[in-house]
Design brief:
Elements (H helix, E strand, L loop, with lengths): L2 E2 L32 E8 L5 E8 L4 E7 L7 E2 L13 H6 L2 E4 L3 H8 L5 E2 L8 H8 L9 E6 L3 H14 L5 E6 L9 H8 L1 H14 L4 H25 L2 H17 L4 E6 L6 E6 L1
Helix pairs in contact: 5-6
Length: about 280
């Protein structure tokens, strides 16, 4: 499992096994006070080597990221800013699977794993995904796979899910966007599983995945519309620059300019939706 509970993950003083002490204490990490520690999520490479870690807190809900340094005196850097490689959660199992469920949080991914489904998520929440795609190609392990993107029931979650779908177009074999029915505001797949129970939730998820439309289809339709529009514009350009019309325009231009009676050319050209008047000063 990529879930690790550590006795004192932050370096802050702890109170029994409840997590971090609520007393105000400054440490060498210079990190602000957090609520009780819940667990740590390991992000590992293909061989299981730890690359970075996300720590979960509660009361209030919060997350911190850190990168191992290999130095016993300062074992962690509390940031992913200089992390050499950032990967998706549960990477070894993602690589070994042909079908992957993408969710917003590590907790949701672990709950889907309990149902026997291979699931993953990205670190640092929804806003960090586009940057990780550009800098670290974090979506590459999903190349050639069938991906089901489950959205949380809020605007941020829906926007993130659409960003993930767009980043996987042309990478994954197929991408399906799934909005779970019956969720409350800000509900997620963990709430869905808790509400229906594991067996019924898994059955409904598989049914939703089978009926969901491939997210690449709207993109294909848009590309087809762009192609048709481009062809229409090319046709209009040919109409305007056709040899007969250009010849007529040149004749009229020279005729009127030589006679000195007009200072502009006015032409009525055939157009797909009626005539169009072109005026050009001489």
């Amino acid at each position: 499992m990529n879930l690790m509970s550590v006795e004192n993950p932050t370096g802050f003083p702890v109170s029994g096994q409840a997590g971090i002490s609520t007393k105000s204490t400054k440490t060498s990490t210079n990190k602000p006070k957090r609520g009780p520690f819940v667990c740590a999520y390991d992000y590992v490479d293909e061989n299981g080597k730890l690359l970075h870690q996300t720590l979960r807190y509660r009361d209030p809900k919060d997350f911190l990221q850190r990168t191992p340094t290999g130095d016993t005196s300062e074992p962690w850097v509390w940031s992913l800013k200089n992390c050499p490689r950032i990967v998706i959660f549960n990477l070894p199992k993602v690589i070994a699977s042909d079908e992957v469920w993408f969710v917003e949080g590590e907790k949701d991914a672990l709950n889907l794993e309990k149902l026997g489904l291979t699931a993953t998520s990205g670190p640092q929440g929804s806003k960090a995904w586009p940057g990780h795609v550009r800098k670290h190609a974090i979506h590459e392990p999903l190349r050639g796979k069938k991906v089901f993107v489950i959205t949380d029931n809020d605007d941020t979650g829906k926007k993130h899910s659409h960003n993930v779908c767009r980043s996987l177009l042309g990478v994954a074999a197929s991408v399906k966007y799934i909005a779970l029915p019956g969720l409350s505001e800000k509900g997620d797949v963990s709430d869905f599983i808790e509400k229906l129970g594991p067996d019924e939730a898994k059955k409904r998820l598989i049914e939703l995945a089978a009926s969901a439309l491939d997210h690449t289809r709207p993109r294909i339709r848009r590309q087809e519309r762009r192609r048709r529009t481009k062809d229409q514009m090319e046709g209009r350009r040919r109409i305007f620059e056709g040899p007969c019309l250009v010849s007529v325009a040149i004749q009229r231009a020279f005729s009127r300019q030589l006679q000195g009676r007009h200072r502009e050319i006015s032409l009525s050209l055939p157009w797909p939706h009626g005539q169009r008047r072109i005026i050009r000063s001489l």
